[in-house]
Amino acid sequence: QVQLVESGGGLVQPGGSLRLSCAASGFTFTFVGMSWYRQAPGKERELVASTNRLGDITSYADSVKGRFTISRDNAKNTLYLQMNSLKPEDTATYYCNVRWSGLGYWGQGTQVTISS
Description:
Number of strands: 11
Structural class: mainly beta
Order of helices and strands: EEEEEEEEEEE
Largest sheet: 7 strands, mixed
Oligomer: single chain
Distance between the termini: 40 Å
Number of helices: 0
């Protein structure tokens, strides 16, 4: 059974940093690319960052380029999102995502709030 468990969210002041983690199980982590999405209240879920199965190819939404870094530890079956220079508009629930055997899976999400 595929499971994705996000953690690391919280309340941070503008300009601060957070590192999100996504612990994965129930599938062969090293076989697949992974992604982070976010959803703000009243908005559609949007793709934030993706990485390939090795972690050496990454892509980012324009809104987070240069501030966020996606990475993975294949030995720990864990996906990360390092978020720096956080802005109020980064406030959202953040989800990790994987496609496995033709299906998409989501974690429960972790809330990130940027406010002074």
